[in-house]
Structures are given as structure tokens and as C-alpha cells.
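Q: I have 279 residues here and want to know how they pack in 3D. Can you give me a structure?
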Amino acid sequence: MKKIIVFLGMLLFVAGLNAQQQARMNASEMVSNRLFIGLGGAFTGTVITQQNFYGEPELDYAAKYGNVFSFSTGYILNEHVGFETGISFSKQGVAYADVKQQGTFVFKNSAGGYDSLSAKFTDVARDITTNYLNIPVLLRLDFGAPENRSKFRVLLGPQFSFLRSATQVYTRVPANTGGSAAPTETYIKDTEGKWFSVTEPDISDRISKNDIQVVFDIGSDFLIGNHLMLSTGIRANYGFKDVNTEPYRLESHKDGVYVESKNLYGGIYLSLNYLIPLN
């Protein structure tokens, strides 16, 4: 009886080693010469650095959150190198909030002209939302033993972004204008000398139609079964182009200097990918 138990134990041990070896072989094979397609999403924090207040008194930054939905495709050359692209839709922007905003503002008078008046606003909030279509072109670098079913990876490369819409919600409570109640809509001249409403909800003409961003992503890939790969990561995007269009690049109220505005956002990304063998 003891011999039978020992023999069965040896069989189970050998079977376990074979299964482990087979899993290693499968994992190694799955990460070489593979196409993949996937769906993903992200929750992000977003800001536009130095966003223009068009010469009016500036406000403090407030938290602004966005999201990304993506369709990705790519090619894994071997266990260490691959490429990734696709299409994503991102919600970005910037938010401001302050207890007061005080200074000289331009209001439209009853005759259709413009008057500069000293004014004060309270409970001020400005929320800018931009929506982009993005096409990333990324290099994948994977690290870890080929037989492992989970790997550390880095994504790096440019992203070409195209503006779909840009809106703002600018709310503030008038306190006074030379002793009288004030409207909340204010005006200023652009660099071409044309009057425009600072508080206009649709600001698509003020935001550049495209941006070129750099993408940096650190995360992990997990193989599930024989054809699925779950990817998680922390990703940051930084834009190189000025967000503001030429007519709206106005000097700041604070120091009379214009500084370019740039897109900056990042967060936690998650995607599920289907692996397609080519051999």
C-alpha cells in the first residue's frame, strides 16, 4: 500500500512539473509575434497650464476631472518590444474657483458701447471643458522573464490630438460696479482689436484645433487564458502646442506678460486586449 501511495505521489509531482512547464511555454509563446485589439478607459485629473483670462483678474485653480475611452491595436514583436496605436476620446480642461474677483472690467452699455468700470464679483467659478479625438503612436517596452504571465511595461511616444469641442461655464455674483449692480458678462478686445465676450459659453474659436502631446505610461500586463491580456497603468500626457489661438493670446492681468497654455492630464488606465497569433 505504501508503494502505491509513493508511486501516486510521484505521478502527481511529475504532472505538476509538466503543467508548470507548459504554462511557462504558453506564456512565452503568447507574448511573441502577436497582434492585439482592445478596449480601454481611464479616469484622469486634468489642467491647462497658464490658461488665459484675457487680461481680467485671475482665479485660483480648482480640481478638474476627465476621462478617456479608447480603442487600441498593436503588435507585440517579442517578449520585450512592441508597438501600439488606436483611437481615443478624451475629456480634458481646467477649473478655477475663488471667493472674489476684483478689478477693472469692460461692460456693454445700453447704447451698445463699452464702458470700463471698477467691479467686484464673489463666489466665482470658471470651468472649461475640451473634448479631443486622439491618435497615439507608442513604443512598448516589456520587462520580466518570458515565461511570466505578468510583466512590467512602459509605453512612450507622441499623440496627435484633434479638438472636437470647447465650452466654459463662467459663474460669478456681482457685488458692485461704481455703486450699482453689475451684469456678469464682460468684454475685452482680442489681439486683432475685435471685442468679444469673455464669458461666452462656446469657446471653440479660442482653442487650437490640434495638439501634439507626449505620452508616458508605466504599468503591467497580465495574461488571462490563451488570448486575453489585461493592461493597467498610470499615464501622463503633456501637450507641446499653445492651447490658445492667435487672436486670444492676451497679456495677463497680473504682470502684463503672455505665457503659452499647455494641456496636461493623467490618471489610471485600464484596458482588455485580445491576442491574435500570426504564426
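Q: Anything worth noting?
A: Helices lie at 2-30. Residues 2-30 form the longest helix (29 residues).
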